[in-house]
Amino acid sequence: MRTLLGGFVVVLALALPSGALADKPVVTTQHVDMSIPIPAGTLCGFDVVFTEVGDLTVTTFSDGSQLYQGILQHTITGPGGTLSSIGPAPVHFDVHTGVVTDTGMEFSFHVPGLGVVLAQAGNFSFLPDGTVVALGLNRFSSALCEVLA
Q1: Distance separating the N- and C-terminal Cα atoms of the chain
Q2: Mean pLDDT, to the nearest integer, of 23-46?
Q3: How far is CA 57 from CA 6, 21, 31, 106, 126, in A?
Q4: Fewer CB near the last or first residue (10 Å), C or N of the chain?
Q5: Nearest-angstrom CA–CA distance, 136 and 71
Q6: What is the per-residue pLDDT across 99-125, written as a single tens digit (0 to 9) for each?
Q7: By the 8 A CB rule, do 58 and 66 touch?
Q8: Rounded to whole angstroms, how far apart are CA atoms 123 and 125?
Q9: Model's pTM, two decimal places?
Q10: 126, 121, 111, 48: which is closest to 88 by C-alpha?
């Protein structure tokens, strides 16, 4: 009987997907409220401020890697105007390599009659040495500066 039970446990363990035996991930919420000054000459001939505000769900897996998901409200403000965009892009943190990868549509600022004046989408990896590797859409139109002036 003991051998039969032991065999059953081995068969059951082999039949279960390996993830079923892993620790459950820990899920928390993190509030983001970040403001980034962009000096004159970088995008426009005047200073602008880029902000991100919202809540993210952070899932931490047993190996320490993390997945950030949520929707952030993005704004870009100049001396005479503000544009807003909502960006639902997920962010993955690989604890083994230290690489942070942001995928999907980050933000897309639209102006009626002018279309997209500033957008960032695709796959953006932030390496531990500070290097950014961007693959995808980066769109900038000087109309952005006209709207924010």
Answers
A1: 82
A2: 91
A3: 41, 23, 9, 16, 20
A4: N
A5: 20
A6: 878 788 888 999 999 999 988 887 777
A7: yes
A8: 7
A9: 0.70
A10: 121
